[in-house]
Every structure is written in C-alpha cells, then in structure tokens.
Amino acid sequence: MSDRSCDRSSEEVKKCYCGHPIYVKKSSTMDDPGKRFKSCKLYNPTSKMRGCNYFRWYYTTLTEWQRHIINKMNLENKMLTSETEVMKEELKSLKEDKSLLRMEVDKLKKKLKSVKEETTKSKIDHNSNGNTPVRGNETE
Q1: Which of 21, 55, 58, 134 could disulfide-pair with 36, CB 3.0 to 4.6 Å?
Q2: Is the full-model pTM beyond 0.85?
Q3: CA-to-CA distance for 45 and 9, rounded, in angstroms?
C-alpha cells in the first residue's frame, strides 16, 4: 500500500479516531488492486496494524475488466522489477570485472615500463663496455 495524499477539505482536516489526519492510500492486493481507501496515518500494511483501526473504502468497487487490467499491470511490474534486480546484479558483477581488468592493465603497464627500462639500461651498459663496433675506423 502506498501513501498518496492526506484527505483534506477546504474547511477542516479530517482526522481518524486517534487524531491523525486521514490518509488516502491504494490497495495492492489481488482482490482490490489499485482500489483507494482512507485509513489512519499509522496504518502499516506489513503488520496489518491500523493505528486506531479507522478504515473506509474511498471509491466503489472495480469492474472485472479494471481488476483484470490492474492485476496484469501489477504482475508485469513485479516481473520488470525482478528483471531490473537481475540486471543490477549483472551490472555490479561487470563493474567488478572491469575493476579487476583495470588493475591487471595497470600491473602490465608497470611491468612493460620496467622491461623497457631494463632493456634501455642493458643497451647503455653494453655500449659503455666498448662492445659496439666503431664505424669509419675499420682497416681493410
């Protein structure tokens, strides 16, 4: 059930038996999907506690067609919500994979840099030991 609005008239705020403003809410049950009702502000759909037990249906009953359409939409909404949760988990997993791959790329870049530095140092050491032929001073 979801809070929609506080039932207020221009003259006075209507209150339930325990003095709280009366709230207009929507039913989410299969028997009365989308049907609006007035209840105590303290109504808790999970525990079925209604504060002072103030409860009144707001509109007349739905037609069978309306009930069918609303139930179908509620079912589709639940399926889409479920699919969204699966996609969120997949996205989370992909982000973790991306992070691991990024760390691996960084590690490989450091290794490549180290290898390049070693290669450069090795060439410099090799050249400073006089192991390179000097061109132009060769005698035949």
Answers
A1: 58
A2: no
A3: 25
